[in-house]
Design brief:
Blueprint: E1 3-12, E2 15-25, E3 30-34, H1 41-48, E4 56-61, E5 64-66, H2 70-75, E6 77-80, H3 92-102, H4 107-120, H5 136-148, E7 154-158, H6 166-181, E8 185-189, H7 193-199, E9 202-207, E10 210-215, H8 217-224, E11 228-233, H9 236-248, E12 253-256, E13 259-262, H10 270-276, E14 280-284, H11 287-295
Parallel strand pairs: 3-8, 3-9, 6-7, 7-8
Antiparallel strand pairs: 1-2, 1-4, 4-5, 9-10, 11-13, 11-14, 12-13
Helix pairs in contact: 3-4, 3-5, 8-11
Length: 300
């Protein structure tokens, strides 16, 4: 295991942010950590890096107990924070050089390590530009490059593409895919369901500080949403009637904008389908259906 967490608890006053968390991440895999706001994802990341200390439980990172050997663990991991904390007065190369030195990359290897990180982030041509002159997407790539400059065995990505345009997000997905092909273990917390569906070998859904579901995207879809969903459109009274009939039949629904989606539509009884009438639009079930089915439709 690259990561092993047993019974971790973290409290902030009367609030329990992480509540008896159990989590294993195998070496060389990419785990997507999903959950609504307040689920405990960012707190979990801070526990793994010993930025926060668990009140209870045991945490092992790359064989090192944390926090007892957190310094040794951090030397072998790369961390990409949610917030941009690059030094805007330095160039891209200088930012990477500082971190290469902090992570004790040998002086004779430092230039090559920085060059590799710049190339991986597709920033070689902008290496000598100050960070303040880089676009948002470039800065996010530089953040990831900074976390990789010392060739870590494990990378923690906390909301790596938050607030970015779709085009930039695609670029970063390609960068994360490269890490997977290189055998780097990746733990990625994200709000973008498609991100986890595309990149993660395994997905863990968090709610109220615990893991409530775990499996590959395909396994979770099969377990909680089925193969097919059917969307019904119409005015609110029509949608409310669809919900009532479907729930009475023991099936699940979720709101999808101006429609109601019926999950596991492949198992819908024929008489219920007839009662609901025309206007159904079938589609494949998605990981987003799973997420909403597990965590609810209310926004925290």
């Amino acid at each position: 295991m690259a990561l092993r967490v047993r019974g971790a608890v973290k409290r902030y006053g009367d609030v329990t942010a992480v509540d008896g968390l159990d989590l294993d991440v195998g070496a060389g895999t990419c785990l997507g950590l999903l959950g609504p706001n307040g689920a405990g994802k960012s707190t979990t990341m801070r526990l793994l890096t010993a930025q926060s200390i668990a009140d209870e439980g045991e945490i092992t990172v790359l064989g090192h107990p944390v926090p007892a050997e957190s310094k040794q663990a951090r030397a072998r991991m790369g961390v990409v924070p949610q917030q941009d904390n690059l030094d805007v007065e330095l160039t891209a190369r200088q930012n990477l050089s500082v971190f290469a030195q902090l992570y004790r990359v040998p002086a004779r290897e430092r230039r090559a390590a920085v060059d590799r990180a710049l190339a991986l982030a597709q920033l070689t041509d902008r290496a000598d530009d100050k960070v303040d002159n880089l676009s948002g997407g470039m800065r996010r790539r530089l953040l990831i490059a900074r976390g990789l400059v010392h060739a870590p065995e494990l990378v923690l990505l906390d909301e790596p593409t938050v607030g970015l345009d779709p085009q930039v997000r695609q670029e970063l997905w390609s960068l994360i895919s490269v890490l997977r092909t290189q055998g780097v273990t990746v733990l990625m917390s994200t709000h973008y369901i498609e991100e986890a569906e595309r990149l993660a070998d395994d997905v863990a859904v968090m709610s109220a500080g615990r893991i409530i579901a775990r499996g590959s995207p395909a396994e979770l879809r099969a377990r909680y949403a089925g193969n097919t969903a059917v969307e019904y459109y119409g005015p609110p009274p029509r949608l409310a009637e669809v919900e009532r009939l479907v729930h009475a039949a023991g099936m699940s629904t979720r709101r999808t904008g101006p429609s109601i989606s019926v999950l596991r539509a492949e198992s819908m009884p024929e008489d219920l389908s007839d009662e609901l009438g025309d206007g159904a639009v079938p589609r494949p079930a998605t990981l987003e259906d799973v997420f909403v089915a597990l965590t609810g439709e209310e926004v925290a």
